[in-house]
Amino acid sequence: MKRLLPILACAALALITGCGPSESKPGTSAPGGPAPAGKKLSIALLPKSKGNQYFVNVKKGADKAAAELGIELIFDGPTNTDPAKQNEIVENWITLGVDVIAAACENRDGIATALKKAQAKGIKVLTYDSDTTPDARSFFVNQATAQGIGYTLMDTAAKLCGEEGEFAIITATLTAANMNEWRKNIEARLKEKYPKMKLVDTKPCDDQKDKAQQETANLLGAYPNLKCVMAICSPAVPGAAEAVKQAGKAGKVKVLGLGLPNENKAYVKSGVTQAVILWKVEDLGYLTLHAAAALAKGELKPGATSYKAGPLGELKIEGTDILLGQPFVFTKDNIEQFDF
Amino acid sequence: MSRYFRELSVAAVLALMLSALAVFAPSFFSPAPLLSRLASEVPALVVALGMAVVMIGRQIDISVGSIFGLTAVLSGTLLANQVPLPLVLPLAILTGALFGGINGWLVAGLGLPSIVVTLATLVTGRELLSLWQQGRFISLPEGVQWFGLGQTTGQWTLIAVGLLLVTLMAWASRNLAAGRFIYAVGSDPEAARLAGVRPGAVTFGTFVLMGALAGFAAVLNLVQSPQVDPKAGGGLELKAIAAAVIGGVAVTGGRGRLWGVFLGLLLLTTINPALTYLRVEAYWEKAIQGTVILLAVVADRFQGNGGAK
User: Fold this and answer.
1) What CATH number has the domain bearing residue A152?
2) pTM: predicted TM-score of the whole model, two decimal places
């Protein structure tokens, strides 16, 4: 029995990574060199929290690309947002010897060490959705630039409020790298273009709808002149809308945010939420896998200025950011056409 | 008087905080937002009461957030499939009790440490939930929100349920034999056994009660919004443990009063909105909550000998 164990373990590993004993181990190929031909690439995709529907949709797109390109896709992440758990998973993948790690980072600096370690072992690293420090990855698949998102949010809010009045932000956590970038740009746009608007408070909701509802209720009570609530993580948008509805302020206090159309349809149609802003999430997963494969095969090299991602067409690369495009505003008029 | 020192000091801190709010942010007490705030904390109260009982019995249950989340999703799914609320409610309580029973059996039956057992069930529960629900919200049918009573009546109903439960459980823990047994086992399981109490049965019972209350709380939470978030209940274990500790429940078992836990939760859940009303940045919230918990534990240390028993 004892002798069987290593064999069983190897078989299990082979099942997970697709590496049989006869094949060369992934990760041992020279950095920058193409992966051995005939071997299925194994790409590990790390979400911030795998329960979040946003990342479930990322996975849908990634699955599609994996099927088209014949890639072994490994999808794992913390159940709730948890930076330490992300590091742990990356460490496991290093041991497992995957070809590429594509990570959405909860803590920009916290995960950099683990990702650099992966790079040192010859694993290609790219990030998507939420970046790490630039030296810990080759590319960042940027769903929309922080500027694009921040400006779109601020411009939409200003339009809804008639360019004057108080507004507040609900974010996931005060440490989430991408959200902090968006907030910076929201504030920059505010300063530059809307002198009569004032950001009164920013509250975290731990990525939970119920907490967002409570925080919004508190804000509505504490700031009676509040004209708009801007929710920048997806569970917060319906949470904020429900609080506004319960406070009897539907329409008086505008709600907008970054979120999924399906979760917000009822509120958008009943006039509680005015605008939902997002990119096409499945495209992000698709592009991430597509670029990860190209990176492993050596088709995508540092210094490239554009990248052709199958049906997504020719996309711009700014520095080391592969850009998905401009964010999309879902409103009463178009939200019915989307189902995610 | 000195027997109630701990509970009274929590009440005093709470009173101080509320008076400060009355002066600096009187809008804190405007009725509609206050009502909604209190109603939204009732589920946490129900869980905190159960947690206090488990802790008095010298155990801990950190899986409550997962039990809460699983029951919420199960109840939501049943409701979405047109199963009526009066039927879903007992099923939710039963489901919670079942999960509690698993914890209880592992702890009392196999003699495993509760912190490890419930950590394992916490993680397993959450993973099952993500696997099952994939993060999708569940939309509830009309008429479920506020039990179909309308917002204000619904909120008052929730608060009444919360208060009733505190009263009932506080009374039972002091006056029923089963309640006294929990204190006895928490103080000294061996002495309790010699006195004819079966510590294993008592421990098992506290976990079942905890699970049932977590299931009940999940329903009290889901009636407050038209959608169920499968991540509901994340971090609830910390809130419940913190409320119990602030309220004077000893982590070492055998000591604590349930109405103290009620005050502890009130204090804990006033901090966050108070900061919003006082316009303090959110960065301070967790630090202040942590400090309050630390103060409570330190107070326990000094109160340890001869304090409220």
Assistant:
1) 3.40.50.2300
2) 0.79
